[in-house]
Amino acid sequence: MSAFKHITAGDAKALFEQGNAAIADIRDAMSYSAGHIRAAKRVDNQNLTEFMAATAKDQPLVVCCYHGNSSQGAAQFFGEQGYTDVYSLDGGYEMWKLAFPEWCEHS
C-alpha cells in the first residue's frame, strides 16, 4: 500500500499558498543551489534526522526530485516513518520551474 499521494504542480502551489506545507527537495546539492522551490529544504542522508525532527508528522509534506520519479520512493519512506499527509510532486522540479518560475529561488 502506498504511504503517499501524487500531487500536480498546480495543486502543490495551492497547498504551499496555505502556508503550512513542508517541501523536501531530495536532489543533489549542486542542482538545489542552481534552483529550487521557494522554502524547500534540501534533504539527504546527512540531514534526514534533523529534517524529520523539525517537521511535524501531521504537517503536509511534498517531496520533490528532478522529474517526479525518485520522490516517490522518498515519499513512501516518509509515509512509513509516520508522516500522514505526504505527496510526491509529479514532474518534479523540472515541471515546477516551467509552471511557476516566480516560485523558484537560487542558493
Keyphrases for this structure?
five-stranded parallel beta sheet, 5 helices, alpha/beta, 7 strands, 107 residues, two-stranded antiparallel sheet
Q: End-to-end span in angstroms? A: 36 Å
CATH topology: Oxidized Rhodanese, domain 1
Count of β-strands: 7
Largest sheet: 5 strands, parallel
Oligomer: single chain
- Whole-number mean pLDDT: 96
As residue ranges, the low-confidence spans are none
Count helical runs: 5
Strand content: 15-25%
Number of domains in the coordinates? 1
CATH architecture: 3-Layer(aba) Sandwich
List SSEs in N-to-C order.
EHEHEEHEHEHE
User: Any idea what the CATH superfamily is called?
Assistant: Rhodanese-like domain
Sum this structure up briefly.
With 107 residues, this protein is α/β, with parallel strands linked by helices. It contains five helices and seven strands, in the order E-H-E-H-E-E-H-E-H-E-H-E.
Would you write up a description of this structure?
The protein is an alpha/beta fold and 107 residues long. The chain has a single domain, classed as Oxidized Rhodanese, domain 1, CATH 3.40.250.10. Helices cover 38% and strands 20% of the residues. It has five helices and seven strands. Strands 1-6-5-2-4 form a five-stranded parallel sheet. Strands 3-7 form a two-stranded antiparallel ribbon. The longest helix has 11 residues, at 70-80. The model has no long low-confidence stretch (mean pLDDT 96).
